[in-house]
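1st attempt posting a full record on here, be nice pls
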Amino acid sequence: MVAFAHTGFIASLYLEEATSKAADAALGAKRQPLPLTPLVHLELRNAFNRAVQRQRITTAERDALWQDVASDIASGFLVRTPVPSADLHAKARELSDRYTPTIDTRSLDLLHVAAAVILGAETFFSFDERQRRAAAGEGMEVKP
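the predicted structure (as tokens):
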């Protein structure tokens, strides 16, 4: 099974979030590899830094989270996955015409769904309702 996970889903695996237990359960005991696109990587970094700014974690805890991410990259759970920018944006524009008029998708949501489509994802992990609806509309199984 090829899967894609939105940044919020991945962040909940590292930060203590209300969705953390649901994310762990959705992945199951045998975690399948998840692509770490440049956008997901940037958003994950920003999520950790925003947690520092909001005083939810310290900079030392943020740095420890990055070590956990590095370990997950080394183990193959997270896989650095480039997506050609021109293809990504073209697909996102197409998805915008299809979904934004009816479900009010945001640009970043569309970029994630577009990346999943381009990568051939069969499963899409997300807690964002609009993103989930767009991914389902593209034929992906949406979890959790």
